[in-house]
Amino acid sequence: MDTELSYLQRKGAEYFIQETKRVIEQRHTALPMAYVHSFGCQQNQSDTEKIMGMLSAMGYGFTPTAENADLVLFNTCAIRENAETKILGNIGAIKQYKMANPNLVVCVCGCMVQQKHIVEKLQKSYGFVDIIFGTHALASFPELLYQKLAGLETKLVNVLDKTDDIVEGLPVHRQDALKAWLPIMYGCDNFCTYCVVPHVRGRERSRRPEDILAEVRQLVADGYREITLLGQNVNSYGKGLSPAINFSGLLRQIAEIPGEFRVRFMTSHPRDCTHELLDTIAAYDKLCIGIHLPVQSGSDRILQAMNRHYDTAHYLELVDYARKKIPGVMFTSDIIVGFPGETRAEFESTLELIRKVRFEKLFTFIFSPRPGTKAAEMEDPVPYSVKSGWLRELLEVQTDIVYDLYAQMIGHTFVVLAEAESKSKPGVLIGRTNTNVLMEFEGTKDLIGHFIPVKALKATKTAVIGQIIE
Ligand code: SAH
Ligand code: SF4
Ligand code: F3S
What phi and psi, each to the nearest 5 degrees, are found at residue 333? Predict the structure, then answer.
């Protein structure tokens, strides 16, 4: 059952989708085209699929370039300053198209516009932007577009400070036919001191298990082979739901759904990652054994300053436990280099942790101060050039580790989901193991979408070359 407000929001979206469709049919003889560009994390990609679902239901087709589009939409990310700078550059480049075609509708939504200073900036210096809506106002997009197209309003902004609701049932235009994103929760309550997400995505809200399970069943029936459950901290799934359920409980119910598919999830927070969760992963073949567990730093002082609520001993204990219970498990992680006040010795503790854990992949970032976060107020004496040097050092260590991990796979056979033909090598297929390692192997296109046993023959720095086992 929907809450009253989310029910009304869904009904409102449905109503304005139909109204906008009517206006578009009156105006356009040819199919109107939308150019949609999404930045940021998988959560944003998933929101973009809903926005595209609504656009498609309103009668839009999609074009890969902004030139000649009838509508341009940017779904934005605020995680680091360089992300914002790049996005503002992309938005700025649209002005020329708007000048050539005053009927072009320009929309900016997502995490960046949840920040007041960004909305002010867009209004002041990017006057050609017509519609601005925040992460809590996705379902209001059809209404905003209707008002714009019907000429009722010219400049429209809908950025809500917060929401307690989840609007179910919006149409989804999925970007892949085999792999699907499935958000199980929204928002984040953790307030890591460097992070803007809780400020732009609001408080944590979990979807009801019955809605999630119904979506999984539908995806499996539609032929999806890999489902990635999304949330900023999936391990705290279920807070506030009645009857009580936790993430492990949800995973068990999903893994028991019949069908040929596998399940990934991200992101796990080391504080809330439990032995119960690791035991659950061990118990079901459908649950993938590549676990993304962002550690951020190998220094306990820095972890505390980040407000992460765990130390390196806790992290290493989880990794050890997982390795005992889940044969072949691999870990991936996120690292921030140059948190305010980080010393050379503290950075070296991170290198040490990386050598101990041997991650299969690292997403590495130089600290970026975000307005409104605690870390942005902290003393930050280390120059950027030194931090970039540290990052280069870290990447060198990591490159060798990955090569070693891949080399150890040689001679073993892995179940790979064949995803596509290689763009550069005809006759070669690419796919991923359940640890999320990229494999390349000779095969025919009819194998795409199937789980195939592939024997590892050779390691490169980015993938493992293999051969199909009959
Ligand atoms: N919820 C997830 C990740 C969200 S953001 C988690 O808790 O792990 C993805 C990654 O961006 C983070 O893990 C962190 O490594 C990085 N990040 C977030 N804020 C940052 C900042 N201000 N500067 C640099 N990196 C940042
Ligand atoms: Fe940001 Fe921390 Fe929440 Fe992840 S857990 S989204 S890093 S505040
Ligand atoms: Fe960026 Fe928002 Fe995701 S800030 S990383 S798009 S939650």
Answer: -155, 170
CA torsion sign, 192 to 194 to 197 to 202?
positive
Pairwise CA distance, residues 425 & 440, whole Å: 10
* Cα angle 12, 200, 50; round to 5: 40
The pLDDT value recorded for residue 48 is 98
Q: What is the structure's pLDDT at 384?
A: 97
Query: Where in the chain do CATH 2.40.50.140 domains reside?
Result: 413-468
Q: How far apart are CA 436 and CA 45, in angstroms?
A: 19
Q: Is 444 exposed, middle or buried (CB count within 10 Å of its CB: 0-12, 13-18, 19+)?
A: exposed
Percent of the chain with pLDDT over 90: 94
- Residue 5 has what pLDDT? 79
Distance, in Å, from the CA atom of 421 to the CA atom of 430, rounded to the nearest integer, reads 6
Its CATH architecture, for the domain 179-404, is: Alpha-Beta Horseshoe (3.80)
Give pLDDT, residue 2: 60
Q: What type of residue sits at position 188?
A: C
- Determine the Cα angle at 399 with ends 395 and 402, to 5°: 130
| Nearest-angstrom CA–CA distance, 270 and 311 | 9
Half-sphere CA count of 437, side-chain side, radius 13 A: 34
Ligand 1 midpoint to CA 185 (Å): 17
Classify burial at 124, counting beta carbons within 10 Å of its beta carbon; exposed 0-12, middle 13-18, buried 19 or more. Answer: exposed
Pocket probe for ligand 1: among 295, 365, 366, 377, the residue whose CB has the most ligand atoms within 8 Å is: 365
Which positions of the chain have pLDDT values less than 70?
Answer: 1-2
Tell me the fold of 4-158.
Rossmann fold (3.40.50)
Q: Ligand 1: which of 195, 337, 373 to mutate, most ligand atoms within 8 Å of CB?
A: 195
* For the CA of 236, the nearest ligand: 2
Enumerate the CATH 3.80.30.20 domain ranges in the chain, comma separated: 179-404
Domain 413-468's class?
mainly beta
